Records
---
Amino acid sequence: MKALVTGGAGFIGSNLARLLLDQGWEVVVLDNFLSGYRQNLFPNSSRFGFVEGDIRDAAAVGQAIAGCDIVFHLAASVGNKRSIDRPLVDAEINILGTIQVLEAARAAGVRKIVVSSSAGIFGELKTLPIAEDHPVDPDTPYGVSKLAEEKVSLAYHKLYGLEVVCLRYFNVYGPNQRFDAYGNVIPIFAFSVIKGAPITVFGDGEQTRDFVNVSDVARANLNAAQAKGVSGSFNIGSGTRISINKLVAALKAITGGGFEVIYGPPRAGDVRDSLADISRARESFAYTPSVELMVGLNEYMAWARTKAAAPASEQDADAKVSCSECPTTATR
Ligand SMILES: NC(=O)c1ccc[n+]([C@@H]2O[C@H](COP(=O)([O-])OP(=O)(O)OC[C@H]3O[C@@H](n4cnc5c(N)ncnc54)[C@H](O)[C@@H]3O)[C@@H](O)[C@H]2O)c1
């Protein structure tokens, strides 16, 4: 099997590309390094190819998709904050870029496209756990563009019979997740702890999140691709939730503690609780998250320590934003 992974130089895409290569697939990555890293590519594999380009560029997408059976579409302008800062860029990449990828997939006769969506499409949460039929009412440009990405992809399924699976990720964490201005709570906490800086929890810390390990997310993509005839939207979380206070306690247990925890006022717009109902993905393509949070956190801390200890020249090459821009956010 041959797959195109758009956004494969990024956090989730690089973990997926590795899994596909391990499974014997041929993999082509298309990425423009907006938030991805050359170090995440696999130049030493004979089954790996790379096209440096933009998903909005028909020629680049056409070159990358040639001969592919499956497309994993992960390239995106990622995150609420980035979309609020640059809403037009968010819409251009996430909506127009996705249509460009769909057009190329149709022209190339691709069997299936697996689209990375987000729990951000739900907006304010009304029920727990969150099933796929929970109302969608996004409250950021990012949530809106990810919802549009889903809708237009599913329209291609109806119009052209292209198999389309949209995976709505909850809070993903794991190796290759950098600490940057748009980062998630786990990298922000982890790198603060490693630097000996205090961590800030917004609110009372009793808010809960569904953290899912990136290897489970990569596996969800693989299973969804292999499930012939399956199309639609699916929640991808761990199916469990943990409070931010318990996350801090877990980090203390792993690191031996010794870091300061500051409690700040709650942040406007943060949801109180989050928990994915993953039964649809379980039933449709045997999605079975298997990484326990403590195991995944231990692995992540080990990765983050290696990253933090890398030579300054390598860290500079990795830095997309200066740390002074980084929020001490407890939730994304
Ligand atoms: N990380 C999470 O918790 C999370 C949660 C929900 C959804 N998602 C979705 O998962 C996908 C992957 O996210 P991630 O966390 O790995 O982010 P990431 O920023 O690490 O990866 C995105 C990749 O897309 C590339 N890219 C961006 N614009 C591009 C363009 N115009 N052309 C080509 N490449 C481009 C970036 O360079 C980067 O390598 C995204 O679609 C995101 O919306 C992530």
---
Amino acid sequence: MYEAAGRISQNVSGTEGFQEQKAGGLVYYTIPAFTQTGLVRHGFSSRLGGVSSGECSSLNLSFHRKDSPENVRENFRLFCSALDIRPEQMVFTHQVHKNRVMAVDETHEGMGWDKASEIRETDGLVTNRSGLALVTFYADCVPLFFLDPVRHVIGLSQAGWRGTASNIARQTLEAMGEHYGTQPGDCLAAIGPSIGSCCFEVDGPVAEAFAAACPDRKEEIIRPRGKDKYDIDLWAVNRYQLQECGVPGENITLAALCTGCNVDVFFSHRREKGRTGSLAALLMLI
Ligand SMILES: [Zn+2]
């Protein structure tokens, strides 16, 4: 049984964490610093308040799980309604756990939702268009939210372990800069609910990929746990990469919510051994 706000929040970051929101039976999370700008509508879903059953119970937001398209459509309608976004405004990524980021505009509106998509092998989206809702998908991977309140640009990326090791945070900021002139120093960023170091144990080769990606921070992000097993702190790696690009530390909000520790609230690929649904992040300039 899900209990109300506060139980799973661990505001370890110094920044304020994500804010739990409720709309009917729906529970989702928002970023206070993003809300305060008045520039965006946004949210990160939980698994609560949808119409799906079984392993996708109940707010599954992927057409690629063991769920009917009708259920997924209804779940999106519920989530979009809570966020005051029309479903037709959405544009979906086509995620492959790499680090490609694409700029999208009104010609991409509805792709993945009610229009065939030409977006391929893309784990991050950026735009400066109002009314275009970027959508990315999760079940443990790290959601990265970006908002440049100076030039009115947003970005949304999925940082899986491969995306994190290949620095999708930097790729996203560079795409925002290249296409729209964003300076990282102006940006707000947020690291959403995802697998914490408490639940992300890996073997030697994966640990080595992170040691190579963050040579100066190895001790902070990789903790040995038994024979050739290591815990990786994906949140710390992503925060470090954002700061290395020039995003001020005080501009970064960390949810500090572990999907693996909280399968009553979130879908977790690891904890549920792949038999699970999908969460989604939505971000739209007003
Ligand atoms: Zn955990």
